[in-house]
Each structure stands twice: as structure tokens, then as C-alpha cells.
Write a structure and sequence with these properties.
The chain has about 70 residues and is an alpha+beta fold. The chain contains four helices and two strands, in the order ααβααβ. A two-stranded parallel sheet has the order 1-2.
Length: about 70
């Protein structure tokens, strides 16, 4: 976030830590409750088509309606 501000980004950038049961459900609920423009997710399962089909990232993006940036 510091690097974004130093680069001249004037948009609001935030992050949040949540704990609870299922991580997928927590992320989906947070996105639905908040007013976010973009979700950034990390995925380590893009090395094969089959793994990415059933990955946690795939489950999250199929349950939200805003843009998602997936970083490997």
C-alpha cells in the first residue's frame, strides 16, 4: 500500500483480516458485505487445468460479481 501511495495512487486501498470457519465463505461474505471495486487473490494451483478448475480461487470467483485479479 505504501508503494502505491508513493507511486501517486490517490484511490482508497485497504485490506482486512478476518477469522472464522471456511476461508472461502469468509472471503465471499466480505466481498458481498463491502463495497469493493476489485479483489486481488493469490493462487498457487494454476499449474494444471484440473487443479485450477477445483481451486479455492475458482470457488471464490464463481460466487462474487466484481472483478478479480489473480496473482500467481
Amino acid at each position: 500500500m505504501k508503494q502505491c501511495k508513493e507511486a501517486g495512487c490517490n484511490n482508497k486501498i485497504s485490506y482486512k483480516f478476518r477469522t472464522g470457519g471456511n476461508a472461502i465463505d469468509e472471503i465471499v461474505n466480505e466481498v458481498k458485505e463491502g463495497s469493493y471495486d476489485l479483489v486481488v487473490l493469490k493462487s498457487t494451483s494454476i499449474d494444471s487445468w484440473m487443479k485450477s478448475l477445483f481451486s479455492d480461487t475458482r470457488k471464490i470467483i464463481s460466487n462474487i460479481t466484481i472483478p478479480v485479479l489473480i496473482v500467481q
